[in-house]
Amino acid sequence: MKQTLLLLPGDGIGPEVIAEVTRLVDLLAPDLQIEEGLVGGASYDAHGTPLTDETLKRALASDAVLLGAVGGPKWVGTARDKRPEAGLLALRKGLDVFANLRPAFCFPALVSESSLKPEVVEGLDIMIVRELTGGVYFGTPRGIDEKGGLRRGYDTAIYTHPEIERVTRVAFEIARGRSGRVCSVEKSNVMDSGLFWRQEVTLAHAELGAGVDLSHMYADACAMELVRAPKQFDVILADNLFGDILSDEAAMLTGSIGMLPSASLGAEGTPGLYEPVHGSAPDIAGKGIANPCAAILSFEMALRWSLGRAKVADALFAAVGVALDKGARTKDLGGELSTREMTDAIIAAL
Ligand code: ATP
Ligand code: MG
């Protein structure tokens, strides 16, 4: 049966960068069945909701979903549950993608783009695995209320055994295809949920961690080490909150946001959700100058993690590196190339 890739270009520069991906699909995976749908503001404008049941159904029936970006000034006043961002959250929830993968890779040609010293980032290659569906962002009780005459606000940090085990399993699997090292991050010194996290990861390692070298670090120490000596890390495993913060921090070690892909994976055999880390970038939308690399590298991750085409993914990743080596740069990287010309350079390298 044909593999299906559902494209959800979304808003702003989303459609511009996803259009470039379709050129690479034609070249690298012409047998893929490509479908297209609406998400975010584009879906709201057409259907009055940022994600229709129909689109979610098609996402669930596909092998992988590649999203561009959602949001923009046009929809700022929209009710919270109708905002473009709500469409993305509903999609993540509907696909039950619990493991968010964010690589922090420094392409040799972009070493000078980093705000850190070249020797600190040269050869940097980290994968952050963030738990995406649990923890303090979703725990209950939560609220803002009044008790004993005091106004207060609170959230609940909570994880269950299966939630930690399944994301740990993903981190181990990814580590096995890399240097085999996983550093699990929490605050077990001050949080019970953090202590539980450490215990569960340690247990999972005894059971499922063959070939994986596991270490533990407090999240604050990890934040510091990421800037001081980031190359010590291979895979970093973190909960929703710390993973959110640390993946943004790690991203900035490597240069432009226009280069950064992400993947969100669910249970084995279910479609993964792939998207650039950047947003809809309304300030440059429609100008044809957006960097397509984050979207192209998101497609690269889809080839690798959902479509079982690691060799093609390797070739595409290498081609991006070669194009950069040859000086191909969009505006965000200090160059002059248009979105389309940047892709041309990658295609030429392929
Ligand atoms: P969101 O809330 O959707 O994350 P944001 O404003 O926080 O939006 P982005 O939309 O990612 O973040 O934009 C941040 C800045 O980075 C903007 O100045 C934008 O032009 C720039 N930017 C984002 N993506 C790209 C890209 N692919 N190529 C070039 N510049 C980009
Ligand atoms: Mg943002």
Automatic annotation (TrEMBL):
Residues given in the record as Mg(2+) binding sites: 220, 244, 248
Locate the residues binding substrate: 92, 102, 130, 220
Pathway(s) served: Amino-acid biosynthesis; L-leucine biosynthesis; L-leucine from 3-methyl-2-oxobutanoate: step 3/4
List, alphabetically, the Gene3D superfamilies matched.
Isopropylmalate Dehydrogenase (3.40.718.10)
The UniProt entry, under InterPro entries, shows: IsoCit/isopropylmalate_DH_CS, IsoPropMal-DH-like_dom, Isopropylmalate_DH
By sequence similarity, the record places it as follows: Belongs to the isocitrate and isopropylmalate dehydrogenases family. LeuB type 1 subfamily.
Q: What is this protein called?
A: 3-isopropylmalate dehydrogenase
Q: Which organism is it from?
A: Hyphomonas beringensis
Q: What is the lineage of its organism?
A: Bacteria, Pseudomonadati, Pseudomonadota, Alphaproteobacteria, Hyphomonadales
Q: Report which gene this protein is encoded by.
A: leuB
